[in-house]
Amino acid sequence: MGEKSAERADAAGERAAPVEGPRPLEKVKYPMRYRVLRAVRVEDASPSVRRVVCAEQGERIDSRGLVGEYVRVVIPPEGSRVLPEPELKGEKPVWPKPSPPTRKYTVRRYDPESGELEINVVLHEQGRGAAWARALEPGDPVHVLGPKAGYRIDDGYDFYLLAGDETGLPGMARWLESMPRGARGRAVLEVPSLRSRQPIDAPEGVSVEWVVREGAASPLAEAVVAGGVPEGEVFMWLAGESGAIRPLRAWMRQELGLAKGHGYSSGYWKLKEK
Ligand SMILES: Cc1cc2nc3c(=O)[nH]c(=O)nc-3n(C[C@H](O)[C@H](O)[C@H](O)COP(=O)(O)OP(=O)(O)OC[C@H]3O[C@@H](n4cnc5c(N)ncnc54)[C@H](O)[C@@H]3O)c2cc1C
User: Fold this and answer.
1) Do the domains 28-149 and 153-269 sit in the same CATH topology, yes or no?
2) Protein residue with its CA nearest to atom 22 in ligand 1
3) How large is the average pLDDT for residues 222-233?
4) Which of 268, 271, 272, 273 has most ligand 1 atoms within 8 Å of its beta carbon, as the pocket-test mutant?
5) Which residue of 11, 31, 94, 190 is surrounded by the most CB atoms within 10 Å?
6) 124-136: per-residue pLDDT in tens?
7) 131-138 long-range CB contacts below 8 Å, 24 or more apart?
8) CATH number of 153-269
9) Which residues form ligand 1's pocket by a CB distance below 6 Å?
């Protein structure tokens, strides 16, 4: 237990009350939004990731800068970059059947002044989302649902431990860039090659470590565990391939002993057996 969990006198000074540690993470829900944005820049963030910057004229999307905000991009039919107009039922768009697929992408950056929204799409071998990002050109419409929620994470942890792959990177990078500059921690990021590293403006006390995936086995869990158990009140954030996250989720509970609400873990995609 850190200092914050020590006892202190209450406001009246008459009896000791337990000092609360960091508050557990809080999920903040936003109203459902559907917007048609326009791609303004489509470029390589790294050899394996496409940066898509889109913007909206007029009304803004509802991004509040909380951790883990993501949008659902509605993907146009194969071979086309344009989606038919949906029927709107309130804020909910409904397309003729078969409904177009959607894919989740994290808000990497949002500028409320210009209305620019950036997502980073991993260009893996197959998949409608990856193909959409490959084919997208500036000027194309980008149909976006959400974001529908974000997480508020207390600034009072002694140590922030973040781990994930390139799908988790946009969320982690956005969070690291907005963290109080005095924060301490470690971010371990898995990339397919060192050329896929991206600049991240993390607080000085948070190390950013890159690990390269070679072959089928993910090096993520081994790299994180090798760093040992940090001291003090820890928050852990895990986002990446389900199988790579699984052992770390167990480690988070068993070795770090984190209580519910003091860690987050999500399998962002699943490696299919070939
Ligand atoms: C909350 C949340 C936030 C996310 N944020 C992002 C983000 O910011 N950027 C991002 O790129 N992804 C992000 N993802 C993951 C993304 O939604 C999935 O990777 C999605 O499956 C990609 O769709 P697809 O059409 O390209 O591939 P799919 O049609 O879903 O899959 C086709 C095949 O590709 C494989 N595959 C899927 N994703 C990957 C991958 N990343 N690498 C290698 N193989 C893959 C699958 O195993 C499958 O065999 C997020 C997921 C969640 C849940």
Assistant:
1) no
2) 129
3) 97
4) 268
5) 190
6) 999 999 999 999 9
7) 131/78, 132/73, 132/75, 132/76, 132/103, 133/42, 133/50, 133/52, 134/50, 135/81, 136/39, 136/42, 136/50, 136/52, 136/81, 137/39, 137/42, 137/81, 138/39, 138/40, 138/41, 138/42
8) 3.40.50.80
9) 70, 103-106, 119-122, 124, 126-130, 167, 170, 266, 268-272
Kindly report the protein residue whose alpha carbon is nearest to atom 42 of ligand 1.
124
**Residue nearest (by alpha carbon) to ligand 1 atom 49:** 272
Using most ligand atoms within 8 A of CB, pick from 70, 245, 269, 273 the residue to mutate for ligand 1.
269
Q: Looking at the predicted structure, is the pLDDT value of residue 34 above 50?
A: yes
Task: Give the pLDDT confidence score for residue 214 in this predicted structure.
Answer: 86
Domain segments of the chain as ranges? 28-149, 153-269
CATH architecture entry for 28-149: Beta Barrel (2.40)
